[in-house]
Write a structure and sequence with these properties.
With about 450 residues, the chain is an alpha/beta fold. The chain has a domain of about 190 residues: TIM Barrel, CATH 3.20.20.210. It contains 20 helices and 7 strands. Strand 1 and strand 2 form a beta hairpin.
Length: about 450
């Protein structure tokens, strides 16, 4: 039995090998338990707990989860902040009576406003979309400033409590953690315009009635999204994360015209600066496998649905793959059925490396999985994930040969609302050269915080 330090070193080596094209001692195993699940599994009220997070309460929740969690990374993942949402008076993120925070369908941009969006997407979003999405920002400049300040402070408190809890658990149990600052969410143009501007119901109409404007908008938003995804730290252990939404719902011709071109460029631009992309491929992307082959070597993908054998055959040497295991089976299947399914997927996906075990989605409610089934599957994956040829290269192909150069096609992102420090100090110069680097550091730190808040 490894101690905590040894376990940390083992897991870090395992992920380093996986992410750098080497067959690891065993493949990594990821839990599939969302924070909403963990709260309820710990016997706490989902709704009220989300308003009262503290580091201590989060640690209690995470400790309870260890009864069933078995993965190499800390369980829980992404969590929304209902207090920031409250001050924003958001209609883009709304808590239901069950306590789940959802992203309901809305359109915050009119079709007649494409030209304004194209001129400067960030300025348009700041001036028009944000007040429509957040009623707290639509009550005049003073009230908007107060609402934003309250949301920002709530976000800082929220992030601090999670950071303390996550750090405590990582130190206690030797979970793998990528270097601080090396991971970042990454939006892609089509999903960004659909999610936060036109809405899922309006953008299909734009493809038919205003295709030229939509194509212009997809290109216009690229500099902003490139800047948004910039990581502070470049590391093979980090990544940029894309949660795909609309691509799988498009026919092939619309996918190739509207979705894929900018998606493809975003992935390669990320690779140009030394970062890997991690994709959650929502739905069934089997019919787009040939497109996925053209992404940079080492792109990490986990699939919701699809044909595992087809993905392994076409992408297994070039890409790092996971997913496919139907989490719903853990809620109704027998233990043997659940283990047999894990064996089926592992037997297809694991040979040759470039594989991590992950479910197709995360459990949100306790009745989504039977604990005995969940434990049996994770323990099977851990016990049967070892490689006899650890240390061998997955492929002799060179990653740099798979990267297309696109970053030179796009200008540096500019917005009157997000100036850099050199622009800022023209209006507020340092009183002495000694404080210039201190002012710069403070400016970058706090402006970086508020840029993450809509």
């Amino acid at each position: 039995m490894l101690d905590v330090k040894e376990m940390k070193e083992f897991r870090t080596k395992m992920y380093t090998d996986l992410y750098t094209g080497i067959i690891p001692e065993r493949f990594p195993v990821h839990d599939g338990l969302a924070m909403e699940f963990l709260i309820q599994y710990a016997g706490k009220d989902l709704m009220t707990t989300q308003y009262t997070y503290t580091a201590d309460s989060l640690i209690d929740i995470m400790e309870k989860a260890r009864e069933i969690a078995r993965g190499d990374r800390l369980s829980g993942g992404f969590a929304r902040n209902p207090i920031s949402i409250m001050f924003q008076q958001s209609i883009g993120n709304v808590m239901s009576k069950s306590g789940m925070i959802q992203h309901p369908e809305h359109s915050f941009m009119e079709v007649e406003e494409y030209d304004e969006f194209i001129k400067n997407p960030h300025d348009f979003i700041t001036e028009k979309v944000a007040p429509r999405m957040n009623k707290g920002y639509a009550q005049g400049e003073a009230k908007r400033a107060i609402s934003f300040a309250a949301a920002a402070l709530a976000s800082m408190d929220f992030n601090r409590e999670f950071a303390i809890a996550n750090s405590t658990m990582n130190e206690r149990y030797g979970y793998f953690t990528p270097p601080a600052g090396s991971t970042s969410p990454q939006s892609v143009p089509y999903d960004f315009i659909a999610d936060f501007n036109r809405g899922f119901s309006k953008i299909p109409l734009d493809m038919k009635r205003n295709p030229d404007k939509l194509e212009e908008a997809l290109e216009a938003v690229m500099p902003y999204l490139i800047a948004q995804g910039q990581n502070k730290v470049q590391s093979p252990l980090g990544c940029n994360m894309i949660m795909t939404h609309m691509g799988v719902f498009l026919n092939k011709s619309d996918f190739e015209k509207f979705y894929w071109p900018t998606f493809h460029k975003i992935c390669h631009i990320c690779a140009e600066r030394g970062q890997a992309m991690q994709l959650f491929l929502e739905g069934d992307w089997t019919r787009f496998i040939d497109h996925l082959q053209d992404l940079p070597q080492g792109t990490r993908m986990y699939m919701e649905y699809g044909d595992p054998q087809a993905f392994k055959d076409k992408l297994g040497k070039k890409m790092i793959l996971g997913g496919f295991y139907p989490l719903t089976l853990l809620g109704y299947g027998t233990k043997q059925q659940c283990v047999d399914k894990a064996k089926e997927i592992i037997d297809i996906m694991a040979p040759g490396g470039n594989y991590f075990f992950q479910f197709d989605k995360s459990a949100l409610n306790p009745n989504d999985v039977k604990p005995e089934n969940y434990i049996a599957v994770l323990e099977y994956a851990l016990e049967n994930g070892k490689y006899s040829n650890a240390g061998e290269l997955v492929t002799t192909a060179k990653k740099e040969d798979s990267i297309y150069k696109y970053s030179h096609l796009y200008p540096e992102f500019k917005s009157q609302y997000l100036m850099n420090f050199d622009e800022f100090k023209q209006g507020y110069p340092p009183v002495d050269d000694r404080v210039e680097p201190l002012m710069r550091a403070a400016y970058d730190k706090y402006m970086g915080m508020i840029r993450s808040i809509r």
